[in-house]
Each structure stands twice: as C-alpha cells, then as structure tokens.
Design brief:
The chain has a 6-stranded parallel beta sheet, with helices on both faces. Strands 7-6-8-9-12 form a 5-stranded parallel beta sheet, sandwiched between helices. It is of the alpha/beta class and about 325 residues long. The protein has 3 domains: about 10-55 and about 195-265, 3-Layer(aba) Sandwich (Rossmann fold); about 80-190, HAD superfamily/HAD-like (Rossmann fold), CATH 3.40.50; about 275-320, no CATH class. The chain has 11 helices and 19 strands.
Length: about 325
C-alpha cells in the first residue's frame, strides 16, 4: 500500500520528475504554492526535471513559462515526449533519415536534435512516421501520414493522451488522432510518452539522478509510468485525480505517497497504521462499512487522504469493487 518516508521527500530523493499541467500550473497560471515549494526543494538540494507528454511546445517555451510563474527553472531541465519520440526513432534509423511529421514545432526540433530530417510530403520519401500534438495540423498532412502508416512504415507516437486541457475546457488530445490512424491502418504505434519507459529514460539521461521521485496528478500516465519503471511516486491532488479516481486505483497505478499538493516535498510521509478494520493516519480513522467509506476524526488534510487511500485499496483488493464515497467529503 502507501509507502513511508521518515525524512522530507526532498531529502530522500535527489531528483523530482515533475508533471506540469495540474501539478506546477493550470493553463497559464501557477498552482497555488507550487513555485515556492519547488524553489525550496531546489534550495534543499533536490534537482527538478519538468516532464510533459505535450509534444507541441519546445523546452525553451516551457522554461520561459515556468520562470514567468516564479519557478527557478532551466530550459535544460524540461523534457518532453517529442524528445523521447525522437530518441526511439534515432535508435532505429540512420542519421539523416527522413521522417514524416504529423505534429508541431516541438516535435520538429526534437527530430533535428537527433540528426533526423522532418518532412511533410510523401514525395520526400520518408522512411518513418512520427506523430504528436499540433494545434495547426492541416488535414491533408494527417491523411498522407495515415497512408504511410497503413503502408507499414515505422510509426512512433509522442503520447496517447485522449484529452488536453485548454483555456475553454477539455479538448481532444493527440491520443484521439492516434486512435483514428490506428483504426484506419489496423495497427498500433510505438509510444514514447508516459506511461511508457522512453520518456522516463530520456529524463534521467538529460538531467541525471540516482533516486528519482515521479510527481504527478494523473494515475494513468504519471503514476502508472513510475510504477512500471520501478520508481517511487507522489500523487498530488491539484489536477485531474479526485476521491472517486483514487479509491478505484488498481495496483498498477497506485502511488507510493499521496498528498494534497507540492508542499509534501518538504514533509516526511508517515506510515498508515491499522487498528482492527480501520486505517489510521494522524487523527483520522477510515474504514469501509457495507461497501461505503466512513471517515472519523480530525487533523491534517494530508493524513485524511492517506487514511482514505489505504482503507479504500484494502477493500478493493479484497472485494474487487471500489468503495462508495457518497457520504464523505475531503476536508478543505
């Protein structure tokens, strides 16, 4: 179940592999307290890697955004799925090989960095196809790329996220277009982004570190990817994951630690204990009665989430069904 750390996380781990949207910022604005928590972690000696499945923005653009929010970030500490996709292709192709691009500027720059040549027409005789999010993609380019994939060229997708956050709400992500091409071509791509290994491996190659901690807000990308590669994980509840998603998490996407926000980097993570059928964290006791979650007590918000996660997962593993959460509300 949940892990235990007797020292502040920023001391126990030498690099935080941080997701961005929902963890550091939401849209253009910082998550409350995130810049201060990250700068304090760096001052304490923790290296920060800013890792995103978004392949459209190059690291320089992301770095500028982070610094505008008050985060002490270097462009070299930003790693995206475009770089991981280019890494996969460079391992398969000769330098100078032409790659058909279905994507934006970030993917184009990543290919050139690996001495690969992005092209956008079939007449250029590409030997592979790479696909990532590009908000201004012309449909004829998508059709041409899909035909090449159907014909059997190697095909790498930066990520398969079905949605992306936008200023006007949730919109279809790269995964939606990947699914369209996959159905047309009757095959699946090699995927570079989270939860696959390539992006995590690219991150350590670029920023270094021996004791990484994956920090994210999504169970199905950030946490699942960390679990798969064998790295400890911290789920923060400032993004897309709420109570309903947390209690239903299967072992493949359960975090080592769970916390309300990035302030957890400065804190130890106490062990959740068990007293009879209750999971106990701080002043909170959580149990499941007739399939419904019950929580009693008072104390820190972080302890409430720890007690709830432990009780809910114990029930899920024993009964095969998530607990009902209608009668409980997280503390403010």
């Amino acid at each position: 179940m949940l892990g235990r750390c007797d020292t502040p996380l920023r001391e126990a781990y030498d690099v935080a592999v941080l997701d961005l949207d929902g963890v550091v910022y939401r849209g253009r604005d910082a998550v409350a307290g995130a810049p201060e928590a990250l700068n304090a972690a760096q001052s304490a000696g923790m290296h920060l890697a800013f890792v995103t499945n978004n392949a459209s923005r190059p690291p320089t653009t992301v770095g500028e955004h982070l610094r505008s929010l008050g985060v002490e970030a270097s462009d070299d500490d930003v790693v995206n799925s475009a770089q991981a996709a280019a890494r996969l292709l460079a391992a398969q192709l000769e330098p100078g090989s032409k790659v058909f691009l279905i994507g934006g500027e970030g993917l184009e720059l990543a290919l050139r960095e690996r001495d690969l040549v992005p092209v956008s027409t079939v007449a250029d005789a590409p030997v592979a196809v790479v696909q990532g999010y590009g908000p201004d993609l012309p449909w004829k380019q998508v059709m041409a790329g899909a035909t090449l994939v159907h014909d059997g060229l190697p095909w790498v997708a930066s990520n398969t996220d079905m949605t992306i956050p936008t200023a006007s709400g949730v919109a279809p992500g790269n995964g939606a277009l990947v699914r369209l091409i996959a159905d047309f071509a009757d095959r699946e791509p090699e995927v570079a982004g989270k939860p696959q290994r390539a992006l995590f491996e690219e991150t350590l190659d670029r920023v270094g570190g021996e004791r990484p901690l994956v920090v994210g807000d999504r169970l199905d990308t950030d946490i699942e990817g960390g679990v798969a590669i064998g790295w400890d994980t911290l789920l923060v509840l400032t993004g897309v994951t709420g109570l309903e998603e947390l209690v239903a998490a299967d072992p493949s996407c359960r975090p080592t630690y769970v916390a309300p926000d990035l302030a957890a980097l400065a804190e130890p993570q106490p062990e959740v204990t068990h007293e009879g059928d209750a999971s106990v964290a701080g002043g909170w006791r959580a149990r499941v009665v007739d399939g419904a979650l019950q929580v009693e007590g008072e104390g820190a918000t972080a302890d409430w989430w720890r007690a709830v996660a432990e009780a809910a997962w114990t029930h899920l593993d024993a009964e095969g069904q998530p607990v009902a959460t209608d009668a409980v509300r997280p503390p403010e």
